[in-house]
Amino acid sequence: MPTKIYSKAKILIVEEQPLAQSYMKQSLERLGFQQLHFADHANSAKEQCLSEEFDLIVCSFNLSKQQDGYQLYEELRVKHLIKSSTGFIFISAETNGSLVHSVLELQPDDFLVKPFTVQELQVRIERILRRKHDLQTVYTLIDDGNDSKAIKYIDTVLNKKNNSYSPILLRLKGDALLRLNRSENAKDFFKSVLDIQKFAWAKVGLVEALIANNEHILAQRMLKTMLERQETRLVALDLLGRLEIKLNQFELAQSFLSQAADIAPRNISRQKSLSNVSLINHDYEKSYLTQKDIASFAKHSIHDHPDVYLNA
Fold first, then answer.
1. For the whole model, what pTM was predicted?
2. Do residues 43 and 300 lie in contact, with contact meaning Cβ atoms separated by under 8 Å?
3. Interatomic CA distance for residues 112 and 59, integer angstroms
4. Average pLDDT over the chain, rounded to whole?
5. φ/ψ (deg, to 5) at 11
6. Residue 60: phi, psi to the nearest 5?
7. CB-CB contact of 239 with 211 (8 Å)
8. Dihedral sign, CA of 268, 47, 64, 61?
9. Cα separation of 211 and 206, whole Å?
């Protein structure tokens, strides 16, 4: 990567452990990064994101002062305190399944398990900064809400030969088509992508387009196949739960949402849907237990509100 990108890259390190923060500082300075900023808790990180525009945030999951890393990243994204062109890397010593699945559902740019070497850190950071730099134009269009222009720009770039970012650009285009509610176009697009390569994200996109297009039987058929693969099981359970709610099949919806919540329990929106369908099914115990989970995971998050504690 060009040296000027290194020297200009503005990086925020969110880490509450002094020794870990010192290690990150020394490691990044050794790699040539000069504009380093530090926060030892989530509130400090949010304050800095309000006044500075960072190229990369490296965040410890294990923050203990109010918000943890998951809650911080969720709020940064929902409140648009960071741009799509800002890279985000989670670091954590924990690798239990529910944590990893919950974090990956937020779709950070990377997840780095402690302990890691300087070389591992360098590879991850370089890859993310290079991609964010090279795709700056399309990320800016998306952040500005110009999805139509973003699609045109992506098509122009894809027409050039030997584009190493083709899979990423294709995914961004598919997401833009779905946001524009162009479900028929999105369906044809994702099918064409899957004819070339069986990307998991393209399968998910096709299902979302089918559901939006009210092609429920085809969507169900695809989702049941996706349940069999570990990489798509969680998203398939989530989509099946939402689809069955749309079809007023509330017992099936509860079953699918409950399985998804067991895998990744920190998705508050899904937990609320699970609580609601449990009430519809007169499964008051399940609704109560789900409300307890919501109250636990919502504390200090953007979902923290008196209402979440009323039924817990």
1. 0.92
2. no
3. 10
4. 94
5. -120, 130
6. -70, 135
7. yes
8. positive
9. 9
Instruction: Give me the pLDDT at residue 312, please.
Output: 67
Strands (E) located in the chain:
10-14, 35-39, 56-60, 87-92, 110-113
Joined together, the tokens standing for residue 243 give 């689809």
Cα–Cα distance for residue pair 219/154, rounded to 1 Å: 27
Measured CA distances, 278 to 149, 238, 255, 258, 294 (Å): 43, 15, 9, 10, 14
The model's pLDDT over 68-106, given as tens digits with 9 standing for 90+, comes to: 999 999 999 999 999 999 999 999 988 888 888 998 999
On the question of pLDDT at 264 being above 50, the answer is yes
pLDDT per position as a tens digit, 219-238: 999 999 999 999 999 999 99
HEC sequence for 219-262: HHHHHHHHCCCHHHHHHHHHHHHHHHHHCCCHHHHHHHHHHHHH
Residue 151: partners with Cβ closer than 8 Å, 6 or more residues away = 173, 176, 177
Rounded to whole angstroms, how far apart are CA atoms 12 and 35? 9
| Count of C-beta atoms within a 10 Å radius of residue 102 | 19
